[in-house]
Structures are given as structure tokens and as C-alpha cells.
Design a protein that fits this description.
By secondary structure, the protein is of the alpha+beta class. The chain contains 14 helices and 8 strands. The chain has helices at about 10-30, 35-50, 70-80, 80-85, 135-145, 150-155, 155-170, 250-305, 305-315, 320-350, 380-395, 395-420, 460-530, 535-570; strands at about 65-70, 90-95, 175-180, 190-200, 205-215, 230-240, 425-435, 450-455. The strands form 2 sheets. It has a 6-stranded antiparallel sheet, with no helix packed on it. Strands 1-2 form a two-stranded antiparallel sheet.
Length: about 575
């Protein structure tokens, strides 16, 4: 019921007085100097506030004062009804000190202006957002991106690249220098020299240098003396027998280049293995979640009939011992639920080793991420199953790894056979002195050219023959290992296909068992409600239906894990 408040008789007189006061202030504004305008403005603002007028500035200045929403709401609650109806901002209230003068009507009262409307803040209802189920592809992507052992395998590329650069260092340009001074003694002389040597990929080397020998040299060291401008020299050396086709430097370089290619199948093999293990752990986690739900469903059946049993006992339709039997079933089934929870937690912990964030930290998947059901269990085509062994051999990273190791060992064999040859090197050396002659005979000035042959051979050559024998043995080992790896690859594929077909047959039988067990349980519950069977017999049918469901879950999980084994046996990577 609305309440009407009576206005006092002197209320009109007060309003007239306020209007007259406002008019007097306005008339005085024209007479006041511009210097006192600020004081006048503050007076007008205070007068309007006393008369109940309020104005707001749309553009809030930088020095505007703010009051919290809590203070605003408390002020609105304490204000009279007509004041509280003035809309205010929801979060805070702005108070401005640069407002314009109010416009007055003919009677001197301020003109009424439409109040500023606050932007309505619509409260968005909180809705429960169900997280997206964790898929196997999410786990595999996490393995590829941040699994530590796979990241360590990726670093093998850098290791191999570094070893390759190290091997190339044997062909670096070498700069040599020397400075020998003998300022005291009977023979006083000074010798300086600088030279550069470039090893050639063909086995030889190029040489170029400059030397300067000044002072009093003994006769037997006369070759160390040069003309005043020094001596420029160049030369080339070339192996003729040993180290001609291959030497130690080239052998190490060839093997390092092959090593860079060998690490790729090694990385691929680890990726396939880690993907398989992660897939198996994922399906174990999914199966553990569904098994837990099955045990919870069995427990719910016992909990749902508690009141029904109590009511039938009170009506005399059921023996009192039935309540105790049902409580025993509840306790036993709760134990099963706890065991299922533990298995689910264990499966989640194992999966967290592969499911990681981009920083590589393990993520423990919550049960809310469990998918609701297994994906369809589809078998590969007959043609794919027939071609599986050949496909696996062609794509086997283990066989590729052995092939690269065989190539590296053959390079060692070539180097060992090279060591048997005698060393025979040819050398060409040319030099020319420049500057003032230092010898009265002028023997330093003419251009000099020198040719030479150098030979060396160990008579027994046991090191070379021993290296050949050991390297040939390694090649035979690798050949036998490759043969066994190919046979093992075929056997692994055959075993994976067998497990796949067997799991599919189990799924068919398990689904039939679930349908029959559910049908039997429904009939048993009807008979129990009619009093034809007791709770012990009903428990047998309920437990049988749950066991059938658990077998079905295990069969489907085994099939999907067999799919993971099959893909790994065929050496299929996640991106293929």
C-alpha cells in the first residue's frame, strides 16, 4: 500500500526563498569581476546542492573523485525514496568539479534535465562448462612436443652435427709463425717466419710462407740467411700410394656425415615406441574409468533398494535378515569401488609421464577428462593385413639404423686396407729471395725449385692387418643382426595381427554376454520384487551383469591396445 507524505505549509515558502536566492546570485554574477568568478561558481554549486539539485559530468576529469560501489549502495539505502530512485553507476560514482553552470528558468529555478542513465550490467549466469574429453591424439601431441626421453633423442641431431663439424676441422687452414733472436754471442742473428698450410680433400696439402733471416750466421746455418727483403716460398705435397684414396681425416668426415643420417631412424624408432606406450597407458586409463563406473553402478543398485527393503520388512513381506544381507552387499561393493578408484588413480599417474604441458611438466588428468565411451573397433582391411610384413620391413627404422652402421663400418674397412699400403709422397717446393743480396756470391737471389719423394712402410704391418680382421668381423655381426631384426619384425607383425583378430572376437562375445546378462538381471529384479527369489540370488545376477560389463570393457581396451601394437609393428609414426 502506497504511503502519501504531507508537505508542510512552510514548504512553499522555503522553495520560494531558495528560488529568490538563486536569482539574486545570478544577478550578482554580472557585477563580479572575472578574478572572483571561481568563488561565484563554487557558491552556485553549493546553493544548488542545498536545493536538492545534482548534475553529473559525462567526461570525467583526471582529478575526479571516486567512491566505491559499497559506499554508493549504503548512501542509496539511507536516502529518501525520491533520491534513491535516481540511477547511479553500478561500480562507482563520479563527482566532478568542472561542471557547467545550471540553466535557470524564468522563475529562477534550475531547469530539470533528464538524469544520466547508468549502463545496465547484466549478470551473466554461471553455467557449468563440461571440459572436453582428453583424446589419444592430445596425449600423442604432448609426447611429440615435450616428452623428455624423446626430446633427448632429438638432441642427437645436434650431437651428430657437432661431430661432423669436428671432423671438418681436420681440413682447416693452418697458420704458423716463429721468431728466433740471438742478440748475444759470437754469431748474432734474427730469424722470423710465417706460413700457411691448407690440407686438401684429395689427401695432399698446399703450402705458402715467408721468412726473413738477418745477422751473422755460421757457415753450417747459411741456408737460414735470406736477402734483405726475405724469402717467399710455396709448395704442394701429394700422397701416391697410402692415403691416396682415403685417409684418417676423410674417413672420420665420411663417418660423421653418415652419423647425421643414422640418427634420424633412431629418433623415429623411439618416437614409435613412446607413442605405443603412451597409447597403451591412455587406454588403460580409459578402461579404468569405465570399470570404476561399472562398480559404482553395481553399488547404486544396492543403495537404491534400501528403502524398498525396509518398507517390505515393515509390511512383513520380507525377512529382516534381508536388510543385513543388503548392507553386506553395500559394504562389499564399496570395497570394489575403492579398488577401482585406486586403479584409476594409478592409470592416471602412469599416463601423466607422457601427458605433459609445453614446459615438459607432467599433467595428472582429472577424471572429468575421461571420454564417455570407446571409439569404434574397426579392423584393417584384408589387403592391409596381407601386406603388413612387407610394409613393416620397408619402413623399419631399426633396419635403416643397421644399414647406416654397415656403411660406417665399410669406411673403417677401407681405411684399414689403406693402412696396408706403403707410404710414398711427392713434394714440390719453390722459393725466391727478394731485396738486397746478403751474400757476395749472390747465391740467395736466383729462383729455387725442389722436387722430392718420401717413402715409409712398417715391415710387419700388424696394425693394418689386425684392423682389417676386426672390421670384417663387425660387418658379419651387423649382417646377422640385420637378418634377425628383419625376422623379428615379421614375427612382431604376425603377433600384432593375431592379437588384433583375437580381441575383435572377444568383443563380439563380450557384447553378447552383456546383453544376455542385462536381460537376466532385469528378469531377476522382477522376480525379486514379486518375492520369487531372495536377495542372494538377485546379487548373483547383478554381479554377473557387472562382470560381463567389465569383460566387455577389458576386451575393447585390449583391442585398442592391440591397434597401438599393430601400428608400432608396422612402424607407423603419428603423423603418417
Amino acid at each position: 500500500m502506497a504511503t502519501i507524505e504531507r508537505i508542510p505549509t512552510d514548504g512553499h515558502q522555503r522553495q520560494e526563498a531558495r528560488k529568490q536566492e538563486a536569482c539574486e546570485v545570478e544577478s550578482q554574477a554580472a557585477k563580479i569581476s572575472r578574478g572572483n568568478l571561481v568563488v561565484l561558481l563554487l557558491t552556485i554549486v553549493a546553493t544548488n546542492c542545498l536545493s536538492g539539485c545534482r548534475s553529473s559530468s559525462v567526461h570525467v576529469p583526471a582529478y575526479a573523485e571516486t567512491t566505491t560501489a559499497q559506499a554508493t549502495h549504503s548512501q542509496e539505502a539511507a536516502a529518501p525514496p525520491e533520491v534513491a530512485t535516481n540511477p547511479q553507476p553500478a561500480d562507482y560514482e563520479m563527482v566532478s568539479f568542472d561542471e557547467d553552470l545550471p540553466q535557470l528558468n524564468e522563475q529562477g529555478a534550475p531547469l530539470e534535465s533528464a538524469p544520466l542513465e547508468a549502463v545496465p550490467q547484466q549478470a551473466t549466469p554461471l553455467e557449468e562448462v563440461k571440459p572436453k574429453p582428453l583424446s589419444m591424439q592430445d596425449v600423442i601431441k604432448a609426447v611429440e612436443a615435450s616428452y623428455p626421453l624423446l626430446s633427448s633423442a632429438y638432441l642427437s641431431r645436434e650431437v651428430a652435427a657437432g661431430e661432423n663439424v669436428t671432423a671438418m676441422g681436420a681440413f682447416d687452414l693452418k697458420l704458423k709463425g716463429s721468431s728466433i733472436s740471438r742478440p748475444e754471442g759470437f754469431y748474432e742473428y734474427y730469424r722470423q717466419g710465417v706460413s700457411m698450410e691448407q690440407p686438401l680433400f684429395s689427401g695432399g696439402y698446399l703450402y705458402g710462407g715467408y721468412r726473413l733471416g738477418e745477422g751473422n750466421f755460421p757457415v753450417w746455418y747459411g741456408g737460414q740467411q735470406t736477402n734483405g727483403g726475405g724469402e717467399f716460398a710455396t709448395g704442394v705435397g701429394m700422397p701416391l700410394l697410402k692415403d691416396r684414396a682415403i685417409d684418417q681425416r676423410r674417413a672420420e668426415l665420411f663417418k660423421s656425415e653418415l652419423e647425421r643420417q643414422r640418427v634420424e631412424p633412431e629418433i623415429r624408432a623411439q618416437l614409435i615406441e613412446f607413442t605405443k606406450i603412451a597409447s597403451i597407458y591412455y587406454w588403460d586409463w580409459v578402461a579404468a574409468g569405465q570399470a570404476r563406473d561399472a562398480e559404482r553402478g553395481l553399488l547404486a543398485l544396492a543403495l537404491q533398494r534400501v528403502q524398498n527393503i525396509q518398507r517390505r520388512i515393515e509390511l512383513g513381506d520380507m525377512k529382516a535378515i534381508t536388510r543385513i544381507t543388503n548392507e553386506q552387499l553395500i559394504a562389499a561393493r564399496e570395497t570394489k569401488v575403492i579398488e577401482a578408484e585406486r586403479k584409476l588413480q594409478s592409470a592416471a599417474i602412469k599416463l601423466s609421464l607422457f601427458f605433459r604441458n609445453p614446459e615438459g611438466e607432467p599433467l595428472l588428468p582429472h577424471e572429468s577428462l575421461l571420454p564417455g565411451h570407446f571409439p569404434p573397433q574397426l579392423l584393417p582391411s584384408e589387403q592391409d593385413l596381407q601386406d603388413a610384413p612387407a610394409t613393416a620391413i620397408a619402413a623399419s627404422p631399426l633396419l635403416a639404423d643397421i644399414d647406416w652402421k654397415i656403411r660406417q663400418t665399410r669406411i673403417d674397412l677401407e681405411q684399414a686396407e689403406n693402412s696396408v699400403l706403403p707410404k710414398l709422397d711427392a713434394q714440390l717446393y719453390a722459393s725466391k729471395d727478394v731485396g738486397d743480396p746478403t751474400s757476395p756470391k749472390g747465391d740467395k737471389t736466383p729462383f729455387e725449385l725442389e722436387l722430392g719423394l718420401f717413402g715409409e712402410v712398417p715391415l710387419q704391418r700388424r696394425a693394418a692387418f689386425g684392423k682389417i680382421t676386426s672390421t670384417q668381423g663387425k660387418l658379419q655381426q651387423l649382417s646377422l643382426k640385420r637378418q634377425f631384426t628383419a625376422e623379428k619384425t615379421v614375427a612382431t607383425v604376425q603377433d600384432a595381427i593375431s592379437a588384433l583378430l583375437n580381441a575383435k572376437q572377444r568383443i563380439i562375445r563380450a557384447e553378447q554376454n552383456v546383453a544376455l546378462a542385462d536381460e537376466a538381471m532385469k528378469l531377476a529384479r522382477i522376480q525379486f520384487n514379486e518375492g520369487d527369489i531372495d536377495l542372494v540370488e538377485l546379487n548373483i545376477y547383478e554381479q554377473s551383469a557387472t562382470n560381463a560389463r567389465l569383460i566387455d570393457i577389458a576386451s575393447k581396451a585390449d583391442f585398442l591396445k592391440a591397434i597401438a601394437d599393430y601400428r608400432a609393428a608396422l612402424n607407423i609414426t603419428p603423423d603418417s
